[in-house]
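Archive entry. Fields below.
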Amino acid sequence: MVERTEEAQRRSAAERPEPHIRRIWVKNLSKRFGDLVALTDFELEVEGGEFISLLGPSGCGKTTALNCFSGLLEPDAGDIELDGESILSVPPERRRFGMVFQNYALFPHLSIARNVSFGLEMEGVEKSEIRKRVQEVLSLVHLEEHRDKYPAQLSGGQQQRVALARAVVTRPRVILMDEPLSNLDAKLRLEMRTEIRRLHQALGLTTIYVTHDQEEALSLSDRVVLMRAGTIQQVGPPKEVYAEPASAYAANFLGYRNLLPVKLTAAEGERATVVTQGGVELSGTLRDRLSPGDDAVAAIRPEDVSVLPADRKEQGAFSGTVELAEFLGRDSELSVPAELGESVIVRTTGDWKVGSKVSLQLPPERLFVFAREG
Amino acid sequence: MGEKRRGITADLSGWLVYAAVTLFVLVVGSIFLTVLLNSFASSWFGGWLPDGYTGKWYTFAVNEFSLWRVLLVTLIVALSVTAISLVVGVPAAYALARRRFRGKSLVLGLLILPLLVPPITYGIPLATMLYEYRMAGTVAGVILANLAPALPFVVLIMTPFIEQIDPNLERAARMMGAPTLKVFTRVLLPLAVPGILAAGLLVLVRTVAMFELTFLTAGAGSQTLVVALYYAAFSAGIRPAQSIDAMAVIYMLTTLVLLIAALRFVNPTNMVMRVR
Amino acid sequence: MSKIKSRWGIDRNLLLLLGPALVLVVALFVWPLLYGIGVSLTPGPGREGLLSNYAAFLGDARERASIWNTLWIAIPVTIANVLVAVPIAYRMRRPLKGQRPISAIFVVPMTLGVVLVAEGMLTFFGPAGWFNKVLLTLGVVNEPLQLVHNYVGVLISLFIAEFPVVFLILLGYASGIDPNLERAGRMLGAGAWQRFSRIMLPLMMPGVAIAAALSFVATFAVFPSAVLVGEPAGATRVIALAAWQAAYERFDFGEASAIAITMAVIELVCVAAILLGRSRLYRGPSGGGKG
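PREDICTED_STRUCTURE:
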C-alpha cells in the first residue's frame, strides 16, 4: 500500500477531493478495429487511491484500454463501473477524469496559468477560487514563476509538470496517464518519476498509468498489470511481479534476459530438471504445468547468476570465458559463452576483463522454468 | 478511431457539411453543364433543355475566334512562364530556405509583394513600358507580364517546402565528398521534385486563368484563351451565345486536362501552402 | 572554391541563386511600379501640381465612388468566405470519407477562374436559366430573380471563385492542429462549442487571417466579373475598371496611375489591418507539444 507521510496526511485532509472514489470495476472490456483485436475481455478492479500501471510493449492494448477508461474510445463490449454505477455512457467531458498525454497537449495559445485553470473554468468555479487553486497547484509542481509564460517557452520537463498540474487541479476522480515520460531524456525521466510519485503521495488520487518501461511501472505502482496482445498476462504488486513472473513473456518483459530453450526431463513438485540444447542439465523451479518431454524456457536474471573466477569452480557450476564486458559504474554486465551452449548475461560487481575464465552458478530457486510459446 | 461523439449534434454538423458541399457542387456543376449544353444547342429559347443539338458552333468558334492560334499562344505563354519561373524561382527558394543573410526579410518581402499588389497597379505601367520597348502586343511581352506574379508564386510555395527537407542530408552528402553540383542534382533535386511539380502545375494553371495582365499587354495575335473569352463575352450582342459557350468549353477542357495532370501528383490540400 | 563570406553573409553562391529572381522582380514589378508612381505624380493634361492627378480622381464624386463600390464588394465576399469556410473546414478536420474528392471538387472553380464562372453564370443565373426555373417551379418566387448584370451577380461570381482557396487554406490549418488538444479539452470538461471557441478557433486564427487577406486581395482587384455579370456603369464600377477607363478610354495615364496607386495603397492598408488584427488576438504555433 502507499505509505503516507504525516505531511501528506495533513494535506489530504484539507484537500481531499469530493468524490474520493472507493472502487472502479472494469468488466470484460473488448475492442477491435476492423480485423485487429486490440482488447479482449479486459477485467480489472481498482481500489480508490491506488496507483495502477498498465505495462506492455506497443500494440499490447494498454493505450486502447486507457482510452476506453477516459471515454474517448467506445468499447465494443464490457462495462466500467465507478462505485457501483456504470459510467460507460458518460462522455469524457462529464466523467471528471484527469488525463496526461504523452505529448503533453498543452494549449499553445494560452499561458501556463490559463492552461491550468482551463478545467476549472469549464466547471464554472468562481474566479477567486480558481486563482487560489491554480496558485496552489503551480507551487506544488514548482512552476509558480512561469505562470505567465507560454508552453513554447518551457522545457519538456516543465511542460510535463504543467500537464500534470492541469490534470490534478480539477480534483478528478481518477487520473489517467498515457506514457507521460517517454518524450523526456533519461535524467529528466527519473526526476519526473519522483515528481509523480510525490504528487501521488500528496494527493492520493486514483491513478492509471500506461507505460512500456518496466522500471517505471515497478517504481511507481501499487500494482502492475502486464499486458500482451490485448489480454492481461499478470497482475500483482511490483515485488511479486518482479520476483515471480507468471510466464516466459512476463519474465522476458521484466528483465529476465537469459532465456534458455530447454526440454523438461523430470519434475518433482516445484523442482524441475531440464536439459539445454547443448545437452547440459540444469535444476530450476517449475512455474507452469509441464510434463517431462515438453519444450520449455529456463529464465534467470543477470543479477541472479553468480560469478566466480574459474579456479573457484564449485558443484553444479559451469565454466565460460568473458566475451563482452560493459562497465556500468557499480556493476558490470558480462556476456559469457558457457558450457551451457548459450551465452549467459551476467550482472555483477567487480572488475572483469574480456577473456577471463569464469565459473557461473545458476541457483535453482532463481531459475524459472516456463512453458515455451510458439 | 471510433471516438465517442455527442450523438445528434455531431451528426447534424456532418450532414450540414455534406449539404453545403453538395449545394456548392450542384451550383457550380450546373453552371458548367449549362455552358456545355448551350455550346451544343442549335437554339435554346428558355426551355429546360436546348431545342436541338449541333456541333457546328465549335467549328464556328474555332474560325471566328481563331482558336487554334489562341490555343497555341496560351500553351506557349503558360509553358514558358512556368519553365522560367521554376528555373529562376527554385534556386531563389533554396537560398531563402537555407541561407541567412542581412536583409533577408526585405528580399523575401520584395519577392512576395507582387502577389499582394493589384495586377492593374503594375500592369498599366508595365504595358506602357513594353510599348516603349516595342514589345506591346507580342507573345514575348505577354510572357514577361505574366512572369511578374508567377515567379513570386513559385518562391512562396517552394521556400517552405525546401525548408522542411532535412538539411542534414546535404551535409551528409558533402561530408562524403560530393561537390556542390552533385549535392544539388543527386540529393536535393530528387527530394524537391514533388514540390517542384506542385508549384509548376499550379503556376501553369494559374497563368492560363490569369486575366488582367494578359488583357493589358496582349495584342490581337497574342491573346490567351481567357482574354479571348472575355472579348467574346463582351461582344455577346454581336456573336451567338452558343459560340461563346463553345469557346468556354474549350477553355474548360484545356484547364481540366492540366488539372487532372496536377491532381495525379499533388494532394489538393497540399496545393495551398502555409505561409508563416 | 572558397566562399568569401562578408559580414552580411552574402557570397557568390547566394548572388547566383537569388540574383536572377531579384532581377526579374525588379524589372517586371518594382520598376513599373515606380514608373507608375512617377506618372501619377506628373500632372495630366490641364492640371497643375504634384498631386493633381490624385485630386482629380478623389475630387470627382463618380470616380471616388469606385472605391466604395469595390470595398462594398470585397468586404462582404471575404467575410462570407470565412464564415462559411470555418465551420466546414472545422468539421472536415479529421479525415472524412471522401475528403480528397471533395477537395478536388473545390479546386475546380478555383482553377477555371473568374471569367469562365462569370460567363457561365450569365446563362445559369439568367432570367431564363435553370436556377430561376427551379425557384419558379418550387414556388419560392413568383418572378425570376435578377442575379446577373448587377451587384449580386458579382458577389456570387467572386464567392464561387474565391471560396475554394479560403476553404483549402483553412482545411490545412484545421487538420494541422494536434488532435490531442481537443481530447485534452474534452477531458477537462469542455463541451463541443467550448472546444471550438476556446481551443480550435483561436488556433485557426492565423489561417483565418491569411485566407481573409488572400481573399481580400483577389476580390478587391476584381475586374472581368464586374464587367461581365455586374453593372460596370453603376453599382459595380470598381476601381480597377476606373483605372482602365482612364488609361484606355480617356488616355489620361496620369489619372490612371493615380487611381492604380491609390488602389494599391488602400488594399495594402486593409491587408495590414487584417494581419495585425490577428497577431493581437493570438500568438504561438499550433503544434501544442515540445517544439
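CURATOR_NOTE: Chain B has two domains: 7-54, 57-271.
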